[in-house]
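Input/output pair, single chain:
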Amino acid sequence: MTDSKVKATAAIQPPTDSIEKSKLDDASPAEEANIRGVLNQDTENYDTPDLVLTSNEKVIKKGNASIKLGKDRNSNRASGHGGKGHSHCAAIDIVAGTLGHSARSRDEKSNKLYAEPNFVIDSARIYVSQKADIDGYFRLKKPTGGGSTSPVTPRSGIALKADNIRVIGRENIRLITRPDSINSQGGSLSNTYKGGYGIDLIAMNDPEDLQPMVKGENLKDCLLQFKEYIDQLATVVNTFITYQKEFNNAVQTHTHMSPFYGSEVPPDFKQLLNAGLKNAIVVGLNCEVELNATLPLKGTSIQNDYLENTGGISGGKYILSSYNRTN
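Output:
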């Protein structure tokens, strides 16, 4: 066979990795294990694009996992601060799953594919940069409280992105901000405004309704003072009810002097006495019992269940965490 015929034959043959992949797609589990080899040691890496690299980037790559050392960039070679020609913008990009579920090694015409960093669809990434717009790269919406990056206010940054992230500490985890007085760009970190130095917990990339966290001990003190205030108010109301009952009784049983011969007239049994009796019963049942028996018990129960670490009859409702704190 001539060289030209050999070249023509090779051109119409699908690449080896595609042939092997098709075998795996159609194989039973037992056949797949046989093709793959013991413990997957003989398996080729399928659907793995090559990486586009700049002249100042070095990469360690195995299959579709890579560690790239170079300058800050989040997309093509002109992106990021490295693409703009900045100095002091070293970066480390650790990726597992370049192009995510869309990854493949060749296009429909069997041409080799090359991939740029894609901070949206790459499967899992740890990105470390000396100078970066870390919020912009990952399309993070910015709270009004400050502390975000932009193209003109870059900062050193570390970002972790994946479908699920777990940070696990065998003893504890601490999130600490503002340990220094100067940032990575040489800027002074002033105490004049502290809004940008805190910790924001943002779900659904929606910072519109961010609100300050509550300090538990202060909240507990506040609620205890409210309880004391309510107890004092209950005492005042109870005192009022006592004197009002005496007055009602006086009105209920009072008599008048008749204009005829100055004789005393008996109370109005039909209306006043009946209304007074009804009022006394209602006040006794609905006010005095509540103020002197039911409400104090409820107040004590609330205090024990929520404000004191005694467990209470309901248990587990103490408002202060046994583990987590904030400033």
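The chain has two domains: 50-197, 216-307. The first helix runs from residue 3 to 12.
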